[in-house]
DNA sequence: AACCATGATGGAATCGTTTCCATGGAGAAG
DNA sequence: CTTCTCCATGGAAACGATTCCATCATGGTT
């Protein structure tokens, strides 16, 4: 339990002032002669500047926060790995929180990060914009990933319209809404849900499917909107069902869907937890995939190949998304960073067949 | 971007000294009268003490570090969720690092945590005891989970014997080795690998299997030792193969095993990544599970049920292990905490059949 | 020769908290 | 009434870094 050398120790041992040591170590100006000596002494004392002192002085903690709903959702695990990879190569710490998809826990974690003076945050948001207001007000650099926070409810605001609006924004087709009082859009890293869903729906259509269901979870607003758009015409509302995020509720939703609508012939699962539930529920009800029902799952995960038949999926680059998000939040020391939309890919395996 | 109120602001507004404010907020003694006023003012100013100042003063960062090899390994994701759950309920931050199973990266991350003055660390170690020496020397409270760091190589030290030794320790059957110069054992949270493997091997034996292979990964020393012990007699060394931790190498190991020893009738996979590889390799080689080969996988993960047939697994309570580890590292503010060994459970599904 | 610009250097202030210590007042015991 | 004790209280010193600013030396210019 030896105590670490401080900058003062180095200064004394090198016969210089602490200011000089600090400058040498952080790349300020110094004569080659002193620089060399300071460096030598620092190495010899095994000196490592304490982040504590620095953080206090600069009134900010280095590194970044990372908030995801659930690490056991493989997509978020991949995403987190991407963030960690970038942070590691930058030598920055990552403070992780898992929200369980609960806005309240999310708010608490934001509070905790504020207390820690973590001023950079990557988040897969669960709460709405009100939840995020404190973070933004405190001047945090926030990068959202995978989804955007919902708008808080207000009577002149229609959630469905809002989601469609987000889609339009992605395409640059529409100007931002009359954002007079709304906070400026924060940078984000999203997958191209619209194209992904559209491709999947078209693929199923091409196989002859007409009654296609969507199995969604929290935060899948944009995906549902894209689904509605891709299906076109009035969507059969019974074919759009939601789970709350837990595996149990996903299973219940899937099972309920299959039972209430035996006439459906294809399902698009909005995420891998939903996909898992769909496979399980189908098996439980003796529905054969893809003979009785075709299945496309959002997210490519290692176990998609293990199923039999292996699952046809809409792959989004989880790891890349994480890496990009971390880059954004680090680099954007300047100002507003541009948002990023990454492409998805339909990977055809064996869980979709022709409509019978 | 408002700036936060400091303790000084509160002191002035309440007409008391900063020391008093600090005492009130951290539960020291104060007259009810002032306590009330300070609390009121603090609430009104929305004051939250900055962790920065406190950390510097106490020369330590709160919270804990968490080092795992790979979050996309579902077991580690479950484990991390457990740690996060405990940390969240304690209001403590968690600094996460993913080592990729690489001792070098692990060492770097330890260095980073040291720099941050994080003095509590939960780790699934990849490096050996030498890798961990700096952390211990610096006085960190370290809790290992899932496995223990390997002993560094020395000629009078036999790794196999060491692993067996660890097993004995678990049972409390043997006194610790002559640890004269060895650091004292650190607290840890482990699953009862020995019993788990033993149960699985006996189960396979009971089904008539005689040529049982073990498919291991890094850090599975204790599991291999348990396997050897459970199989008894001289083990056919060709039936014990290892991957390096990546999915590719796991697949290669599994595939190689199946090809080189078509006579084997059962496989115990030492972890879920290995199990995944085994399923994939078996399918690729047209081996039917469980007709041609029976499979037991260490780790219960949601997708084990999705396989067809669903996988028979040795479940270890990943989430609980994480929660317990976090409790240990937090509560053991005192001194050496006792290690914990949690039970495993053989969950019989459909991947094992009688030997033909 | 006097002066100025430049660059290296160290002292000291600062960040926000906790904690040590001295002070002062009130109540109890003599 | 005096003295002793105890407790609430506030001032000030840490903690370890960064950074402002004044100082000093050096070398070039007029």
Written account of the structure:
Chains A, B: Keywords: DNA-binding, Repressor, Transcription, Transcription regulation. Chains A, B: Residues 5-58 form the HTH lacI-type domain. Chains A, B: This is LacI family transcriptional regulator. Chains A, B: One of its GO terms (molecular function) is DNA-binding transcription factor activity. The structure is a homodimer of 356-residue chains. The first copy, chain A, is of the alpha/beta class. Chain A has three domains: 7-49, lambda repressor-like DNA-binding domains (434 Repressor (Amino-terminal Domain)), CATH 1.10.260.40; 64-191 and 319-341, Rossmann fold, CATH 3.40.50.2300; 193-316, Response regulator (Rossmann fold), CATH 3.40.50. Helix content of chain A is 44%, strand content 14%. The first copy, chain A, has helices at residues 7-14, 18-25, 32-45, 51-58, 74-90, 103-115, 129-137, 159-171, 193-206, 221-231, 247-260, 272-284, 318-331; strands at residues 64-68, 94-98, 120-123, 141-145, 188-191, 212-216, 240-242, 266-269, 294-298, 312-315, 340-342, 345-347. Chain A has a six-stranded parallel β-sheet with strand order 2-1-3-4-5-11, sandwiched between helices. The longest helix of chain A is centred in the first third of the chain and has 17 residues, at 74-90. Chain A is elongated and about 85 Å long. In chain A, 49% of the residues are buried. The model of chain A is unreliable at 172-180 (pLDDT under 50). At the A-B interface, α4, α5, β2, α6 and α12 of A face α4, α5, β2, α6 and α12 of B. Chain A binds a DNA duplex (30 and 30 nucleotides) through residues 6-8, 11, 16-20, 22-23, 26, 28-31, 34, 49-59.
């Amino acid at each position: 339990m030896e105590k670490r050398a401080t900058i003062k120790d180095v200064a004394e041992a090198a016969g210089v002032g602490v200011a000089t040591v600090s400058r040498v170590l952080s790349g300020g100006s110094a004569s080659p002669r002193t620089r060399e000596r300071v460096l030598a002494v620092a190495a010899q004392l095994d000196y490592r500047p304490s982040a504590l002192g620095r953080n206090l002085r600069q009134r900010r903690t280095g590194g970044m926060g990372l908030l995801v709903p659930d690490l056991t959702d493989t997509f978020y695990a991949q995403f987190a790995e991407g963030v960690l990879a970038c942070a590691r190569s930058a030598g920055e710490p990552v403070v992780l929180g898992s929200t369980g998809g609960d806005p309240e826990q999310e708010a608490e974690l934001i509070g905790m990060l504020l207390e820690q003076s973590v001023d950079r945050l990557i988040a897969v948001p669960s709460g709405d914009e009100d939840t995020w207001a404190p973070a933004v007000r405190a001047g945090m650099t926030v990068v959202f990933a995978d989804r955007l926070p919902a708008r808080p409810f207000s009577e002149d605001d229609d959630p469905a319209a809002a989601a469609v609006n987000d889609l339009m924004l992605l395409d640059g087709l529409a100007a931002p809404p009359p954002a007079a009082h709304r906070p400026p859009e924060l940078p984000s890293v999203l997958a191209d849900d619209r194209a992904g869903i559209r491709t999947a729906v078209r693929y199923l259509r091409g196989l002859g499917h007409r009654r296609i269901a969507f199995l969604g979870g929290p935060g899948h607003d944009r995906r549902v909107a894209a689904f509605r758009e891709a299906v076109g015409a009035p969507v059969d509302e019974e074919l759009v069902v939601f789970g709350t995020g837990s595996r149990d509720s996903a299973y219940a939703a899937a099972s309920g869907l299959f039972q209430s609508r035996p006439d459906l012939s294809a399902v698009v699962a909005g995420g891998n937890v939903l996909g898992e539930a769909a496979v399980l529920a189908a098996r439980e009800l003796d529905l054969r995939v893809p003979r009785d029902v075709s299945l496309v799952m959002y997210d490519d995960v290692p176990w998609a190949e293990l199923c039999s038949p292996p699952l046809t999926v809409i792959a989004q680059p989880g790891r890349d998304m994480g890496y990009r998000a971390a880059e954004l939040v680090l680099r954007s020391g300047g100002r507003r960073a541009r948002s990023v939309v990454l492409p998805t890919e339909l990977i055809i395996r064996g869980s979709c067949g022709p409509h019978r």
